[in-house]
Design brief:
By secondary structure, this protein is α+β, with helices and mostly antiparallel strands. The protein is built from 3 helices and 3 strands. The protein folds into 2 domains: 45 residues; 47 residues, no CATH class. The longest helix is centred in the N-terminal third of the chain and has 38 residues.
Length: 102
Amino acid sequence: MPVKPTTREEEFFAKQEFERRRKAAQELEKHLASQELVRLKELHWMRCPKDGMELVEVEFHGVKVDQCSHCGGVFLDAGEMDDVAAAEKGGFLSSLGSFFKG
């Protein structure tokens, strides 16, 4: 004759199943988020944030900066403003750089 599980046993197994499903959902969410980051990087890599056109590397004061092929906007990566300001010595960009450093 089969033995019917108690309410406490049913609650225990229900909680275990809930935790298993919650962990699986979290793992799926992390995986999808990482895939979305990769997709966004591929979509926006070397694209102008203003108009979405292609960015081209050009040399300015000996430093390679990114310039939009459509609007002509110039975009600097981390540290490039300091390099340009150092090459300029006392010009507008070096004073602008000191403004951002505080």
